[in-house]
Design a protein that fits this description.
By secondary structure, the protein is of the alpha+beta class. The protein has 19 helices and six strands. Strands 1, 2, 3, 4, 5 and 6 form a six-stranded antiparallel beta sheet that branches.
Length: 471
């Protein structure tokens, strides 16, 4: 039933899109004629429009699912906004005063405003004084009659009934007299039986769309008049159903706004990431990927930016295969260890027992600090020291000893990690070494490729890389 009712409103909107063209409707906007006003149905918005609205006020509500209906009112006058723009302020046209000239002049629907005597909810006078649009009176509510300026696009239907109007509508008594006459007309023509101006017969609208729309409208109205859709119980439940649909429409609109806002935030984050890549030399100013970027694409086991900086700084080329594996262990540590509670360069150096590794680890931390500073300058969320402390030296001594030929039982005594955690970390280290070999081959660094292959050979041995019974 609600779908049929909405289809009826859509057809009426389409019909009045033709009949409300100024060349057709202006001759009939006469003082005293009954006119029914209703805001057009809100059209479906695109995602781009939803994104544009997301950038607006936070308190702005989405379009309502049902349009505002004013019911029957009495036409007072109309005005051409183009004349006001030319300096002829408030030039109004009433019956017998320029209707034909205005119609001949044509124009768009948006160029005209009609002034209508409408029934408003209590408090309308205060709303008008404050410059706000009053609310329409609800059924059974005490109404106030006020002259309101409405867009011509809100004119829904015109009646053939015309009232004799008082000379001056500024007084409350005169408006109340019109209200009594309007109620008498509605009493004589109950429901939807107020005589209407027919587009073709009365208004002489010669448009092939009009007969087609009228036939569709009659079919929908006949369907709505069926007994199964006119029961009192069904109509009593309609307000609750409308409220539910309104909430669903509001939820859908808010979800679109959330999605658009998230997309906006993502755009800002992506811009920051591109800025970081440019400053670190992974892409050129024109966005063309460079050698650093190609190397970073080969790495997925550890922090790509730091691994790339280690390669291009020459630090890895200066180290032995044993020291290389020990240094790279800092990049794959993800589980707990004793040194995680001790922070700072001094604590890091003290935690490393192999003296030869201290300088290399410090240089790696300096590179990490530089990367974090670039990320921070690009206005991306990062804590510099927290980023540096992610690369902990917990297993430097252990991996150095393991690659030097120590037994697994011996290296397990060098830290307080569980044996399973040690094995998992060494497997990640082996995967990182394989990725480094591919990256070194990509940029033609044969020396680094050979050193990584040697380090991998030292790493893969004994029980740590024994085939599991469960794999």
């Amino acid at each position: 039933m609600l779908q049929a009712g909405r289809a009826k409103l859509q057809l009426r909107d389409a019909l009045r899109g033709v009949t409300n063209e100024p060349i057709h409707v202006l001759p009939f906007l006469q003082l005293g004629r009954l006119a029914q006003l209703r805001a057009p149905l809100p059209r479906e918005r695109s995602e781009a429009e939803a994104g544009a609205q997301a950038g607006g006020d936070e308190g702005e509500r989405p379009a309502q699912a049902e349009p505002v209906e004013w019911g029957w009112g009495v036409l007072v006058s109309f005005k051409d906004l183009r004349l006001e723009a030319e300096g002829e302020k408030g030039r109004r046209r009433k019956s017998g005063k320029g209707d034909a000239a205005s119609a001949a002049g044509g124009g768009r629907v948006e160029d005209f405003v009609i002034e209508v005597l409408l029934r408003c909810a209590p408090g309308a006078e205060a709303a008008v004084a404050a410059g706000r649009q009053p609310e329409p009176a609800r059924e059974g509510e005490e109404a106030e009659l006020h002259v309101l300026s409405m867009p011509l696009a809100h004119l829904d239907r015109l009646s053939s009934v015309k009232l004799q109007m008082p000379a001056d509508l500024r007084g409350g008594d005169a408006r109340f007299t019109v209200l009594k006459v309007l109620r008498e007309v509605e009493r004589r023509f109950p429901g939807d039986t107020v005589p209407l101006l027919q587009p073709a017969e009365d208004m002489q609208v010669d448009d092939e769309r009009v007969p087609r729309l009228q036939r569709k409208l009659e079919a929908v109205e006949a369907r709505l008049a069926e007994p199964r859709l006119s029961g009192a119980g069904l109509r009593a439940r309609l307000p609750a159903l409308r409220a539910k649909l309104d909430l669903e429409a509001e939820e859908a609109a808010l979800r679109k706004r959330i999605k658009a806002a998230q997309a906006t935030l993502m755009k800002d984050e992506l811009k920051g990431m591109r800025r970081v890549l440019r400053r670190l030399g992974h892409v050129s100013e024109e966005g063309v990927i460079q050698n650093k970027g190609r190397v970073a694409c080969e790495v997925s086991t550890a922090d790509e930016l730091l691994v790339t900086e280690l390669i291009f700084s020459g630090l890895l080329n200066e180290m032995s295969a044993q020291g290389l594996a020990a240094l790279l262990s800092c990049l794959v540590v993800t589980e707990g260890g004793g040194s995680k509670d001790e922070k700072g360069d001094g604590a890091c150096a003290a935690a490393i027992k192999t003296v030869a590794m201290r300088e290399s680890v410090q240089r790696m931390r300096d590179l990490a600090r530089r990367i974090a500073s670039v990320v921070e300058e690009a206005k991306l969320p990062v804590e510099v020291e927290e980023y540096v402390e992610r690369f902990r030296p917990d297993l430097v001594d252990l991996v150095h000893a393991w690659c030097g030929g120590a037994k697994f039982v011996e290296v397990c005594k060098m830290c307080d990690w569980y044996e399973g955690s040690i094995v998992r970390t060494m497997h990640r280290l082996e995967e990182l070494l394989r990725q480094l070999m591919d990256a070194a081959k990509l940029v033609g660094n044969d020396e680094l490729e050979a050193r990584c292959a040697e380090a991998r050979k030292l790493l893969i041995r004994d029980v740590v890389f024994a085939a599991s019974l469960y794999t």
